[in-house]
Amino acid sequence: MTAYANINRKKTASNSLEAKMAFVERFSLFSCLNLEEKMLLANQMEYREKTRYSFVYEAGENSDVIYLLAEGAIKIGSNSPDGKEVIKALIHPFALFGELGLVGETRRQEFAQAMKEEVILYTVKVDDLRRLMRQNFELCNRIMLYLGNRLTLAEQKMESLIFKDARTRIVDFIKDSVSDRGQRVGYEMLLRHSLTHQDIANITCTSRQTVTLVLNELRKLDLIYFNRGKILVRDLARLA
Fold this sequence. Notes:
There is one protein chain. The protein is of the alpha+beta class and 240 residues long. The chain has 2 domains: 3-163, Sandwich (Jelly Rolls); 166-233, Winged helix-like DNA-binding domain superfamily/Winged helix DNA-binding domain (Arc Repressor Mutant, subunit A), CATH 1.10.10. It has 8 helices and 12 strands. The chain has a 4-stranded antiparallel sheet with strand order 1-8-3-6. The protein has a 4-stranded antiparallel sheet with strand order 2-7-4-5. Strand 9 and strand 10 (188-192) form a beta hairpin. Helix 4 packs across helix 5, helix 6 (166-181) crosses helix 7 (197-204) and helix 7 crosses helix 8. The termini are far apart.
């Protein structure tokens, strides 16, 4: 079987109602839906693939769909007038993004871009998800909490920029990422990621050179070990 045929077979399988239902069942946000509502949502979802580093959407595009991530990693960000990139959030599988259309955004204010691997996702029209939220109060409540958490994280980042120095912001980013997505390996924590040093700089509002200096310093202190795509934290409590 040719590679093209394999790709088409994979796409057909992922676009089947069975695959969509399996995805909805694993998506914790939708655990409050009954079977009929899950089936309705699955029927409304559209399958999409994006190659690595390609844009899912860009600033200025219509905010008429919500995205549900199945595989890969997405960065949400914006660009300053002088072209500097700021990464506002990293999205990992079984999370939604592009959700501001639910609260009145008509045009995207940010971009969403695939990182260093292919991305598989589903889209749902804003109007369809709004109808589902109106008939299921718990879903509405969960999505409002999700939006509130996004706002809280944005405020915390702003406070970090005001009150913390560059080194502390980088260390905090490592600690938060490991706590959220790290895997325990004995007494250590392993974080697998898709980030370059420039990406970490864009997240922490520092420079690539500063990120490299801080990571090398932490390695010399035997607090972390890192190579491409991995950060191993020796002792999370000592990382400061």
